[in-house]
Specification:
The complex is a heterodimer of chains A (424) and B (106). With 424 residues, chain A is of the alpha+beta class. Chain A has a single domain, classed as Cytochrome P450 (Cytochrome p450, Orthogonal Bundle), CATH 1.10.630.10. In chain A, 48% of the residues lie in helices and 10% in strands. In chain B, strands 2-1-5-3-4 form a five-stranded mixed β-sheet. Classes of the chains: A alpha+beta (424), B alpha+beta (106). At the A-B interface, helix 5 and helix 6 of A face helix 3 of B.
Chain lengths: 424, 106
């Protein structure tokens, strides 16, 4: 990016901030995906945290309609840790479907205890410390291979050649999925999160469901292979043999696949891109990091805070209750805006600065808190750590040569394109 | 001031003195004892301050809350003596407490 682009982009942001400050706060809709395409959602949240931290928000999309936006760190913590009041059973995104609609996929992140706990415990050993030690060598080997094959002296899309490639390899490894077909995984991940109602470019719902049925078919073949073999340490074998998961019906299998694919793919992928962009936008932090690579340990959680690859999680009130002085009614839905909580100056010092040697960098909301906390958090951190170790070792300069293209979604906060050039 | 000892997964002990009223999690993180993460800052919400307590001490710590029970479902290698260190407040009565660390926090 040249200096002119940077100035233009700063002007656009100042204008957007002023425009957002002048909007009526009544019915403001932070879930409008346009804020995320333009990367101006932060100004909406800045205003809500200050003026109306638990805000009655309204979307023009009929399946979303009215919801509470919870924007402060401590209120998000309270909702996230009170699963007896704030349920996940109605889903984790704001979109509602009519009862029985097959588009609403059953998955353990969208369940309450005790079923949630049992299904989660069936898959969590794969990312437990002992297994992470086993994965380490393989992750490094694949990272090195991908980085060594990057083009030099020409512009390429970092999202495609680095972020998608690395997370897809990892996911294929966890599933013991045929490597030659691995690009099906991000394709299906995009299908899972596709929503025609909020993104006109998304596939029609029936096309989406047809593709997800193909996903189910493919994985059912793997399931059948694994159930007839002794238990192994891949996710499909664990699901097929686990007492809490081996009797899942097709819809529940599809839902849990969707969860694991999106959870292991869209998240770390966007932190891999967001981290490079953050260091590009804060060159003095890159200098700090290069002079002391041991800072990678705090860089990684700071990237995850900064990016917040899932901007929110939804909960639904099981009873009338109070939250920060607001009367929440039974059945109301709430968005815990992790992206906003991660910029809350009441909880995080200088939250709008990207700081590679931040104090207590791990106290961010990006993994959620409470019983639904991200099960793959340590694996995500390990992937990012290895990526940055190998990047620093290899490339003296990684140039970001243009503006990123951001995904049209208020749930997955991500990138489809980041033009990068590596001299040499 | 109560004294507490953390024993690492592969051995190695760290003994620290802390003011009464300090949580076991803070006793570790404030003194840079490795092996306790405490990602949620002591809200019983992340299960990254998991420790193992031997029976004699375990009985003196008081019962786990329902929330702690549920969060312990998130840890790897839960055992009978599993506790979350942020839920244990150190007092003079617990002077000499010894706890063991898991392989890693998860």
């Amino acid at each position: 990016m040249n200096a002119m682009d940077t100035i233009e982009s700063a002007d656009l942001h100042a204008a957007a901030r002023a425009r957002i400050a002048a909007l009526p706060i009544d019915g403001l809709n932070p879930a409008d995906p346009q804020w995320f395409v333009d990367d101006t959602a932060g100004y909406v949240f800045e205003r809500l945290r200050r003026e109306d931290p638990v805000h009655r928000s309204r979307s023009p999309v009929p399946g979303i309609d009215s919801y509470w936006s919870v924007t402060r760190y401590k209120d998000i913590m309270q909702v996230d840790t009170s699963h007896g009041i704030y349920s996940s059973e109605e889903g984790i995104t704001l979109m509602d479907f009519p009862p029985g609609d097959e588009q609403k996929l059953p998955m353990f992140i969208a369940m309450d205890p005790p079923k949630h706990d049992a299904q989660r415990m069936a898959v969590s050993p794969i990312v437990a410390p002992a297994n992470l030690n086993n994965w380490q060598g393989l992750i490094r080997e694949r990272t090195v291979k991908v980085l060594d094959s990057l083009p030099r002296n020409e512009t390429f899309n970092w999202v495609d050649l680095v972020s998608i490639e690395l997370t897809t390899y990892m996911l294929a490894t966890l599933f013991d999925f045929p490597l030659e077909d691995r690009r099906l995984l991000p394709y299906w991940s995009d299908m899972v999160t596709a929503n025609k109602l909020t993104n006109p470019d998304a596939p029609e719902p029936e096309v989406r469901m047809a593709e997800l049925r193909k996903m189910l078919q493919y994985f059912t073949r793997l399931w059948n292979e694994r159930i007839n073999a002794p238990p192994r340490t891949d996710l499909i074998s664990m699901l097929a043999h686990g007492p809490a998961t081996r009797n899942m019906g097709p819809a529940e299998f599809m839902g849990n696949l969707a969860l694991l694919i999106v959870g292991g793919n869209d998240t770390t992928r966007n932190s891999m891109t967001g981290g490079l962009l953050a260091l590009h936008d804060h060159p003095q932090e890159m200098v700090k990091l290069r002079s002391n690579p041991a800072l990678i340990d705090s860089l990684v959680p700071e990237i995850i805070r900064w990016q917040t690859p899932l901007a929110y999680m939804r909960r639904t009130a099981l009873a009338d209750t109070q939250l920060a002085g607001k009367q929440i009614k039974r059945g109301d839905k709430l968005a815990m805006w992790y992206l906003s909580g991660n910029r809350d100056e009441a909880a995080i010092a200088s939250p709008d600065r990207f700081i590679v040697d931040r104090e207590r960098p791990r106290q961010h909301l990006s993994f959620g808190f409470g019983i639904h906390r991200c099960v793959g958090n340590r694996l995500a951190e390990l992937q990012l750590k290895i990526l940055w170790e190998e990047l620093l070792r290899r490339f003296e300069v990684i140039e970001v040569v243009g503006e990123p293209k951001r995904v049209r979604s208020s749930f997955v906060r991500g990138f489809s394109h980041l033009p990068v050039r590596i001299p040499g | 001031m109560p004294k507490v000892t953390f024993i690492g997964f592969t051995g190695g002990a760290h003994t620290v003195d802390v003011p009464p009223g300090t949580t076991l999690m803070r006793a570790a993180t404030d003194n840079r004892v490795p092996g306790i993460d405490g990602d949620c800052g002591g809200n019983c919400a992340c299960a990254t301050c998991h420790v193992y307590v031997e029976q004699a001490w375990f009985e003196r710590l008081g019962a786990r809350t329902a929330t702690e029970q549920e969060m312990l479902n998130c840890v790897a290698e839960r055992q009978d003596g599993s506790r979350l260190a942020c839920q244990i407040t150190l007092t003079d009565a617990l002077d000499g407490l010894v706890v063991n660390m898991p392989e890693a926090q998860h």
